[in-house]
Design a protein that fits this description.
Blueprint (H helix, E strand, L loop, with lengths): L3 E5 L3 H12 L3 E5 L15 E3 L11 H9 L6 E3 L1 H6 L1 H9 L3 H28 L6 E2 L3 E5 L2 H6 L1 H9 L4 E5 H7 L10 E5 L2 E4 L2 H14 L3 E3 L3 E6 L6 E5 L4 E4 L1 E4 L5 H9 L6 E12 L9 E3 L4 E6 L2 E5 L2 E3 L9 H13 L2 E4 L5 E7 L6 E4 L6 E5 L5 H16 L19
Parallel strand pairs: 1-2, 1-14, 2-10, 4-19, 6-16, 14-23
Antiparallel strand pairs: 3-9, 5-9, 6-8, 7-8, 11-12, 12-13, 15-18, 15-19, 15-20, 15-21, 16-17, 17-18, 22-23
């Protein structure tokens, strides 16, 4: 068993980790309670974005905090009872919206996104899915000049990190995306240093198929138990059907379920909150099209062309992982999107809903769990797991092999929250 690894979770992060460890010669088994790519990795805008280096808890958050706390913004909603039970997470999150920790996070995320972009291109080629990739960037739309001016600090960060952008006026936007309502957006920022795919769920599935085709083992059954077995570095898994399996190493990549699993199985307490989000697909009237994802900064939604139709994604809601559905933000997003684009009929009867795992510093945990030999962690990617999954795998693979990683691993070390 000295070379065996069990990867728990087959979202983008888990599948990428399985592929990378397989490439390094480990015998990998991938565990997922459903088919790969059907949970959190399914519901996103499909953007692989350099611009995602700016986390939600940036220095500009302080100025907008009074309005956000009113709990009426389409961009951000929260459950007061959830925040009351998680004040430690909330204060830690706000404490890191200062210049120094912000720069540390932005620098770390930039390196992880760059690494992931290269890996996505490689994996898309190996999986035969390059046709899903668009390399024409995405657009930040502003409904007024004042709103555009208010984004100057973010543009300065992009410039400092070398993210290629171009400012557009209304006429230039019309030439680039004629389907958008003319004149509604006087200013636009074209983030050119980004790519997108037309189905993040299908890409994750394709990576999983590649893993299996190369000899990997996929087990679609939830892991109900995790405990030490035999030697200090060996682990035993208990599956939903009561069967067990032994492995030398375990990688926990369960996304928003990671914190609950580690607490229940090993007593490890991870300070995690959950960014609830929704999406729904629409047709388009009159043959209107979009060539790339667009982010309406005033309407607080992203509209992205997908294989299933135009995917409308909502703002963020902080709430419990198993909280009841709240359709308000998606309804507000649809209302705003119909002002900007001739959306047609809804494709699905019910919208997709999911949660993204967020740690207080908006950085994932990537590395060995302290005091737990053979246990490795890869979760906490907030809403950019699709952008950062493959880079996470490369970083984790190097650490597990005892090599020097391609980027600095210290900003992601689990010890910053686990003792």
């Amino acid at each position: 068993m000295s070379n065996t690894v069990a990867v728990l979770g087959a979202g983008m992060v888990g599948v990428s980790c399985a592929l990378e460890l397989q490439r390094r010669g480990f015998q990998v088994t991938l565990y997922e309670r459903r088919a790969p790519g059907q949970e959190t990795s399914y519901g996103n805008a499909g953007v692989i974005a350099r611009s995602s280096l700016i986390p939600f808890n940036h220095p500009g958050l302080w100025a907008s905090l009074p309005n956000l706390l009113r709990n009426q913004s389409p961009q951000f909603r929260y459950s007061p009872s959830f925040l009351a039970r998680n004040l430690g997470w909330a204060t830690g999150f706000l404490a890191r919206a200062r210049p120094q920790p912000f720069e540390e996070t932005a620098r770390a995320l930039d390196g992880l996104i760059r690494l992931s972009t290269t890996e996505h291109q490689r994996l898309l080629g190996l999986a035969g899915e390059r046709h899903r990739l668009r390399d024409n960037g995405w657009l930040f739309l502003y409904r007024s000049q004042a709103a555009y001016d208010a984004g100057a600090a973010g543009r300065a960060v992009f410039e400092r990190y070398g993210v290629r952008t171009q400012g557009l006026d209304a006429a230039e936007l019309q030439g680039l995306e004629p389907g958008l309502k003319h004149g509604l957006f006087p200013r636009t920022l074209w983030v050119q240093d980004s790519a997108s795919v037309d189905s993040p769920g299908a890409v994750t599935e394709a990576y999983a198929r590649l893993f299996v085709a190369q000899g990997g083992r996929l087990v679609c059954s939830p892991v109900q138990g995790l405990a030490r077995s035999g030697s200090p570095a060996a682990w035993q898994l208990r599956l939903n059907d009561g069967t067990t399996a032994q492995t030398d190493r375990v990688v926990v990549a369960l996304g928003p379920w990671s914190a609950g699993f580690l607490k229940e199985q090993l007593g490890l307490r991870v300070p995690m909150a959950f960014e609830r989000g929704y999406h729904r697909h629409f047709g388009a009237e009159g043959g209107a099209t979009l060539g790339r994802p667009v982010y309406d900064t005033g309407g607080a939604y992203v509209l992205s062309p997908m294989a299933q139709g135009l995917r409308l994604t909502s703002g963020v809601e902080l709430t419990d992982l198993d909280a009841p559905r709240n359709p308000l933000q998606l309804a507000l997003a649809e209302e705003a999107a119909r002002q900007a684009f001739p959306l047609g009929a809804r494709v699905e009867a019910e919208p997709w809903m999911g949660s993204r795992p967020t740690l207080p510093d908006s950085r994932p945990m990537i590395g060995a769990a302290p005091g737990q030999p053979g246990l490795w962690l890869a979760f906490g990617h907030q809403h950019i797991g699709f952008s950062t999954g493959p880079g996470t795998a490369v970083l984790l693979g190097a650490l597990m092999a005892g090599e020097t990683p391609a980027i600095d691993a210290s900003p992601f070390r689990p010890e910053r929250f686990l003792r």
